[in-house]
Structure formats: structure tokens, C-alpha cells
Write a structure and sequence with these properties.
Nucleotidyltransferase, domain 5; 2 domains; 26% strand; alpha/beta; five-stranded mixed β-sheet; 248 residues
Length: 248
């Protein structure tokens, strides 16, 4: 039987998990999702993660995708979760709550790992950037298939403003922007990324990757531009793959 590891994607609105077949990069059972507690304090989130872990009764290491810069298991930032996470040992907190060994990785990095192993970036060398458009803008950068962890390129300055305050999917929804207007903003952002890093491939992920026909026509990229294949399952799959890598 193929190895299964539990992957959990911890987000600002939901905490979802599933067992992952880490050889195929597919979910081995339906996702189980609970609402992220508000406020999303370390104690409250850890308790909810424990409920997701208990739901599947799967032994072994767990992978967690978390919305923060993560170094040696510790959160250095906090996006869409309580600021009390900053400086907290996320790995130790989740291990204590679940009695399981945990691997913790930045959420955009997790999505990128999944796409590079099983999706749009498979077998691609050179510089590849995964951009997730959602509540904010997340990025994952790979050089010859190897992750450069914790890039926060959604916060580069475009037109005097933080890029994600102009071009995230949430901004499009909140401001009722047309696809053309929003596509123009995303295009400006991607061109800035290209000028800085000269990628060969840009993978566009997040929930919006289900609708590339709505806005890809407004993007003018020197790099090859593709929609993510794993969509909203990427975080769960990438977290489980990261856990597998740490086991190895």
C-alpha cells in the first residue's frame, strides 16, 4: 500500500486536512474542514488542528501548512491569524496538542512544493515562481526544483503600495473590479516579479486558478504562464510531502 501522511492546511477562515498518497500526490480520503477559531490564537488553533488530526486516526508524522514565515518551526510573522503567533514555536505547539511529530511549512511554500512534485511545475528546472492569489498574495520560489523558503514577494512595492493590497483576489471581490481592471493589476505585479527574478515559469494558484480564462488574456508575460493544477488541494498535499521529506 502506498504511504499515506496527513496534511493539514491552516488558513484564516478554515483549517482543512486529509490523508495524502505521497507517491501519487492525491488525497486518499475526503477533506475534513473546520472553521478557524476567532480570534485565531495559538491555543484555539492548536485545539482545532487536534480535532482534524483525531478525525482521521492516521498514525505518523503530520504536515502543516501555516500562514507565516517559518524558521526552525517558529513563526516570524502572522498573516490572517492572531499576532500572538509571532515568536511562537508552531511545531512544538501543534505537537503538544496532537501528540504527533509535526513538520510545519509556510502555506504558499506548501502549495508550491505540491505543484513542483505533481502539478504544473513537475520536471521544470531554472527559476519557477508559484503565485497564490487569495486573501493576500503568496509566493514560492524554486531554483532547479529546490525551494527558496519563506519568500514574501506578495509584499513588494508596486506603484507605491504593497502589491497584495492592489492585486489579491480579495481586493478584486471587495472592490467589485472587472476582470480586465484586476487582470491589469495582476499583470503589473507579475512584470515587477519578472524584472526582479527572471523566472522561466510562473504558476498562478489559489482559488482563482479555476478560472484562468477570465483573466489570463490580460496578462503579458515573458515567462511561460500556467494555472496551478492542484488548486485548493495544493496546501494539504504540499504539507504532507514536506512531512515525507523530513521523515526521509
Amino acid at each position: 500500500m502506498a504511504q499515506q501522511l496527513l496534511g493539514i492546511d491552516i488558513g484564516g477562515t478554515g483549517i482543512k486536512g486529509a490523508p495524502v498518497d505521497v507517491e501519487r500526490g492525491t488525497l486518499a480520503a475526503d477533506r475534513y474542514r473546520l472553521l478557524t477559531p476567532q480570534p485565531a490564537t495559538p491555543e484555539a488553533v492548536a485545539k482545532t488542528v487536534g480535532q482534524v488530526v483525531d478525525h482521521f486516526q492516521l498514525d505518523g508524522r503530520v504536515g502543516g501548512a501555516f500562514p507565516a514565515v517559518i524558521q526552525h518551526g517558529i513563526a516570524l510573522t502572522a498573516a490572517n491569524v492572531d499576532k500572538r503567533w509571532i515568536g511562537t514555536d508552531v511545531r512544538a505547539t501543534l505537537e503538544q496538542a496532537t501528540s504527533r511529530p509535526f513538520t510545519v511549512i509556510n502555506d504558499a511554500d506548501a502549495a508550491g512544493v505540491a505543484e513542483m512534485e505533481f502539478g504544473a511545475g513537475k520536471h521544470r528546472m531554472g527559476v519557477v515562481i508559484m503565485v497564490t492569489l487569495g486573501t493576500g498574495i503568496g509566493t514560492a520560489v524554486f531554483v532547479d526544483g529546490k525551494l527558496v523558503p519563506n519568500t514574501e514577494l506578495g509584499h513588494i512595492e508596486v506603484g507605491g503600495r504593497d502589491a497584495e493590497t492592489r492585486a489579491s483576489e480579495k481586493v478584486r471581490e471587495d472592490n467589485l473590479l472587472s476582470w480586465k481592471k484586476w487582470g491589469g493589476r495582476v499583470n503589473t505585479y507579475l512584470q515587477k516579479l519578472e524584472a526582479l527574478l527572471n523566472p522561466e515559469l510562473i504558476i498562478v494558484g489559489g482559488g482563482i486558478s479555476k478560472k484562468p480564462e477570465k483573466f489570463f488574456g490580460y496578462l503579458d508575460s515573458r515567462a511561460e504562464l500556467v494555472a496551478a493544477k492542484l488548486r485548493n488541494e495544493a496546501g494539504i498535499i504540499g504539507a504532507a510531502v514536506a512531512a515525507e521529506h523530513e521523515e526521509e
